[in-house]
Amino acid sequence: MTLQLSDDGAVLAVAADRTKLFDTASSTRLGLLPKGRYLIGFSGDGKKVLTGSGADDSLRVYDLSGRLLRQGTPPLLVTDNGPYGLHADGKTIAVLVANRKVALYDLESGQVTGDHPIKLPKDSTAHKLDWTGDNQVTVRRSKRGSGMRVPSPVFRRSVIVTGAAVDPPRGDRGDRAGWGWAAGSPVAWRGG
Q: How far is residue 111 CA from its own chain's centroid?
């Protein structure tokens, strides 16, 4: 059995044979995801879920009642990489590519819409992407040490998509942060 909480803590996903979604305040079951679909994560607003399948490379987005909203089969750039983060719009997926860039994929159009170089410290592995704002993806990573991964929120980084030009800032540990663009908008790191 696997448990996963939405970022706001309002919804709990319980995965066994099938994934059940529960309201944490009332303990009411909100929905049930189809058999053969596994939960990848919640959207940035916690109102949708991104799922995958062990049978193929398809990605599907469901609302909390289990109703299918969107589906598609992304290109290898997306399916061969990860982790993923689903935007509140239910169609934009951020994916970490080889620990070196964050790509944005539009599930509705089937197109990669952005590509943002990043630099993670050598002693870390990204384990989660979260949309923590309309234009912000937070990369959460674990620090490796003594042969085991230790969660390290101190090393969290955010990709900020803004409408104004930015210079690459310095990270909170003195490392140089990465920057790039998305659909014509600059992207920058913010320590957090």
A: 17
Whole-prediction pTM: 0.76
- For residue 185, which of 101, 132, 102, 114 has the smallest C-alpha distance? 114
C-alpha distances in Å from residue 37, one per residue of 29, 32, 41, 54, 142: 18, 10, 12, 7, 27
How far is it, in rounded angstroms, from Cα 160 to Cα 98?
Answer: 20
Q: Across the 192 residues of the chain, what is the mean pLDDT of every consecutive 10-residue run?
A: 92 94 97 95 96 92 98 94 94 92 93 86 82 85 59 45 31 33 34 36
Distance CA 41, CA 28 (A): 20
**Among all chains, which residue has been given the structure tokens 């990465």?**
178
- How long, in residues, is the chain? 192
The two three-digit tokens of residue 79, written as one number: 């399916």
